[in-house]
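User: Here's a chain of 767 residues. Predict its fold as tokens.
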Amino acid sequence: MIKKIQTINDFGVYKDFNWGKISNFKKKNILYGWNYSGKTTLSRLFECLRDKKVHPHFENSQFKIIVEENTEINQNNIDTSNEKILIYNSDYILENLRWDLDNKINGITFDVGEKILVREKIQKNKLTISKINGNENESGRKEIYLNALHNFYPFEEYKFSNEAKKIKNDIFNSLIDFDKRHYKKIKNEVISNLNEHILDNEKLIYCKKVSIASNNKDKIGLIDYDINLNSIIISVNNVLAHELDPENIIEIFSTSVQSWLKEGILLHENENNCLFCGNNLSNIRKKTLNDYLSSEVSKLRDRTSSLILEIEDEIQKINEIKLPKSKNDFFESYQRDYNLQLENLNQYIPKIIDYFKLLIDKLKEKESNKIFKSITVHSLESEIINEFKISILAINNIINDNNDLIDNFIDIQNDSRLLVKKHYVADYLIEEDYLIKEKKKDFAMRCLERYEKLVKKLEENNYDLESELKSITLGRKEFNDFINKFLNRDDIKIEVSEDEKFILKRGNVIAQNFSEGEKTAISFSYFLVTLQSLFKKNELFEYIIFIDDPISSLDINHITQVYSIINSFFFRKGIDENNSEKIVECFKQLFISTHNSDFFAFLKDSNRINKKKKIDGYQQPTSEYYLIQKVSKSASEIKPLPKSLKNHKSEYLYLFELIFGFHSSLDKENDERLILLPNAIRRFLEIYTLMKLPSSTDEVDNRLKILFPEYSELKTLHHFSHFTNLDKVTKHDSLIMNLPQAIDELINILEKDEIHFNSLKSGFNLN
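Assistant: Prediction complete.
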């Protein structure tokens, strides 16, 4: 329970309030105060306890509220509040009653309480779904991701199939089976590193040719020739560079004679005479001839002849090199390379043969007439020999590759085909930015999946909420009962529209508008329906109830009904199992505030509210009464209820006491009643004129004219009769200054009704 409000600072009209010696709150508490005195503001302080946070309109406020066991709740520890509080005030009406003009039914539909929140949730969910899915007027959040899918889906729909056809027909001449399934298999093999599978142009050409080749070739023999040119050149140069001493040399012997001489010596080895001419062959002559043959000249000439034969043999070998008969002996993939190497070879063979012939010529020249002289010959360019060897080696490599293809044709062809397939698949995926589009597609799929889950969740939530709307609507019987009790009419009833909205009917006619009284009846009825649901669960006894002015815009008949409902709702019989006649208070603590004197009188006279309880052997009151009153233009306070209000049933007497007391005051300028008088004058005149003219429907100004024709001269009082609240009056300082004159005018009016005036004074012993 709440014991008291120790202090309030800067909380609306409560600028600097201190509880002081005011009696603590009891279980039942009645607060009386005129309009704009601070009743609703006080209820918002209770909202802070309910919501466990400072009210957003008063974020800089400070307060101390003492609850059970003298625990202090303030703006800093408000979140520790454990009080369960339900509040009915103007905020509750705004939050729990919504109505709309529905063209479908040509009338007003409305929601109350939870239905507002439920319908707001439904609408919020529908709006979110619309923003995700889009509608006919605008695209949704899914569109950008759907576009990513649309950019990617053509691969699966037709692009892979088209590319597979191109590879099959254009690359492999329809020699292989290759469709979308095969394409996707290759795609999965190359996707991790596309560039790795791109072939250079030469490799691609080779593999494509192998891929479409037929295995109808015979093996080709290798070129079996290893040129001996370098060693020959060295030997020739040695011979040509050799110089002989001509002494003791028979110069007549030429190269041809030397050959004849060798044969002749063999024939005359055992002869003493020449077999040709018959002349004597002395042993000395024989020795001379044999010495010649064994001389340097003879050896040099023999070496020269031998080199010539060797070179001629090399020339013959070159001319007899066994090359493939035709490029057509090779697979097509090797024909071009073979032709290139053959052209190179044919370019260098003549140059080598010509050089060999040059060497032969030089040797012969040496042998015939320059046996004793050195001869030089230019060197053959090393590039010629190297290129010759390279060409021979290259051709042999081509032959080996070609023969290897013959031996392993199926495996090599399959490998080549696989490389070609991977090349073209990878090349297409790179060209199409496939990886980027796939990444966007994957991200879009994840986003769309999340959106689909969210939409599904929202739709399921809306299904539950719509079911909840129906369950809330099922309580319309209790709702109708309360409204009928409030308005004391049975022709007012609530029905439900197709979309689970409430419809107010007057008789059989759908309401086109709500009166303020009907709005009050509907909102407060729903408040009681909410409390009734807590009562059924036996939880209402745990709650502090604050009801702020439940009779707004209701006439005296309806005010009686409100009091009756409150009296019967919160104070019930038949609950105590041991005593069915016992009246049980169905709340933890009750606060009721009002500006209406009639309603206040009902509450003040209620036996159930004023019931006492025996404590420590004495009967103690369980209720307390307070006055909420303006103390300045912008500040209000909570005060003990004045005796004049507490002891008298009539607000009318209380107002007269204020007015006459001020009239009698000697220090009007500093009189504390000054701030109350504008409202007091207006309210007093309303009651007085209605009492005199109970059937009148005129405004107070016209009623005064009827009662007092001379009223038109009472200008000051005329102004005050038109002000409906203090705030308007306090903006006119000149009128505040004229309050004494207005009071004098009012007393002059009352004095003319002598009997009534004296009776009023007697009520306070003022005679």
